[in-house]
Structure formats: C-alpha cells, structure tokens
Amino acid sequence: MKALVYHGPRDMRYEDVETPKPKKGEVLVKVKSVSICGSDLSGYKGGSAMRVAPLIMGHEFSGEIARLGEGVSGMKVGDRVGVVTNLYCGTCQDCKDGLQNVCDNRFIIGTTMKAGGYNGAMADYVVAPAVKIMPLPDSVSFDECALVEPLSISLRATKHAGELKGKNVAVFGAGPIGLMGVMCLKSFGAKRIIAIDIVENRLKMALQCGATDAINSNEDVLAITRKMTDGVGLDVVFDAAGVPATVNTGIEIARNGGTLLMVGMASPKIEIEYKHAVCKELRLQASYMYTAEMREGLQMIVDGKLNVRQMITSRYPISEGARIFEELASGKTSDIKVILAND
Ligand SMILES: [Zn+2]
Ligand SMILES: [Zn+2]
User: Fold this and answer.
1) Counting C-beta atoms within 10 Å of the first and last residue's C-beta, which end of the chain has fewer, N or C?
2) Using an 8 Å Cβ cutoff, are 23 and 341 in contact?
3) pLDDT in tens, 60-104
4) Which-ligand-closest: CA of 89?
C-alpha cells in the first residue's frame, strides 16, 4: 500500500510500505479521510517526543472496514466507521479509575508513546482493535468523522467546566480545539461566548461557529471583557492556546471564583500570576485527551448539535501530503483544518 511516512524532521515521504494485516481481534480499515492535527505538525517539525521516525501519522480519521481479523464479529467489510484512537491498557489503576486518557501503558494510533509506536491513518490502510470501532451513520460524512477526535478534546474540557447555562465564557485561541470549544460551550448553554485570537480570519470563523463576540488579542482584552460582563469578569475561560500571555490574561479576566480550563499547551513551562489566581480563588482545571468523549462527540454530530464541517478549509489527496505538511509547517497558509483524503 501507499503511505505517508515520517522519516525525521521535515522529511515526509509518500511511499510503498507493506499493507498491515489485522491480527486476532483487529480489523483493517481502508482510510477515507484523515485530518492533520497541530501535534502532527509539531512532530513533523521535530518538536515532539510523540512522533519518532519512522512513523505513519494520523490519529483523526475515518474509513471503511476492509478486512476482519480472527474472532471479530458484529461488523462487516464495507461498513463505514470511525476509530477511537486511544488504545489504553484497561488494567492499570488509572484505567480502573476511569482515567484511560492518562494511562501510562497506552498506545495512540499514529503516535509514539512510552509503550511504543503505532502506525496511523495517513496511508491506504490502518489496523485497529475491533473494540475501538465506532459505526458511522450515513448522515455523517467521512470528513466530519475525521474531526471527532479533536472534538472530543474540546468536549472533555467543556464538561470539566461544570454548569454552563447562562454563563459568560471566553475562549483563547480560535484554532480547531478552540473553535470546537466554542461549539461545545454553546451547545451546553453558555450565554456569552467571547473568542480571543490574534488572527482575524480565525475570529471570523469563531463567530460563524457560535461565538457571540470576538476580540483581537492586540486590544485591551481585560477592559473589553469587563465591560461585556458588567464589571464582573468571565465565569469560565477556555484556554486552547497555553502560552504565558493567554494563561495570565485568563487569570486576569476570570471572575472571582471562576474557572480556567487549561487545554492548550503550546508552552511547556509557564510563569503564572500564581498569587493573583489564589486570591481570586480560581479553579485551575486541566483537561487532557478524552475518555468516553469520542463516542459522545460523534453522537452530538449525528444529533445535529454541532457543525464541525465548517472548519475544514482545505482538502487534498494523501499523495500530496508531503507538500502540504511543508506548507503548513512554514506557517504561510491561513488554513484552519486540513483533510487528507483517499477518494
Ligand atoms: Zn490531534
Ligand atoms: Zn491503563
């Protein structure tokens, strides 16, 4: 089969590799649609321990069942499917406690983890355990299904916020995770949703995705949000960026007793206005990956509760992947979500 293989920093090649065979309890999925994640890009640039060459990336995808491994039942060749890509162990204490998102023994399709590497979906075919298969109704497209994994990240973070009905919230970073955060916050009943970003076309997209207001981070974010909330501040701040400026402005604009959702992690180390956060009695809540949220997110799409399709700004054949990765890494495009497809 053909696959887009990561050979090292800035070295991606579309080449022939052996087609994987599904082992007992596994299925072979013919990839239809795979989305490029920000984490794939930082891996491509050489900035991630989670992408060790040689590796086929791709953890946000959909396709059709092409072959069943031994002992697999309840599905058939040709079924349209999505795949839950977190292959947690299920036996460690974290897994037993419902924290499969942080299981130390997990594999993630398309990445390299402590447990090892697992080839992903930027290829003709990918292998997955049958228990990770999500049946895909005809009403949901392959492209939409490829966005369920990033949606699950935003959905989990939004659930961490608690009751949202009538609340004033802000979202830092109008990239895919922030935009899906906007959609989830809206769907959970938030009243005012203020998107904050430095890129104008992203702010435009945020408004299209359901944000009530958009603020360019070059403006006086504190003064504007104070005015918008009658001097009180935000109940919830969803930080999809995770850089010193967003975390500290987040602490600033959150109301006393408010919640700061820490989702983005662009900066691994951040000096924060710690005393200020304590004295405001803020709740600093981190959110990482997903547990049940992929299946829940797909159901939200099936139920028409959110429209993830609008975020897709480009679509190319997987065969052009090497060029697309280089273009995205150069930072010259204004794309929000790019799909690679096998049509
Ligand atoms: Zn991702
Ligand atoms: Zn585990």
Assistant:
1) C
2) no
3) 999 999 999 999 999 999 999 999 999 999 999 999 999 999 999
4) 2
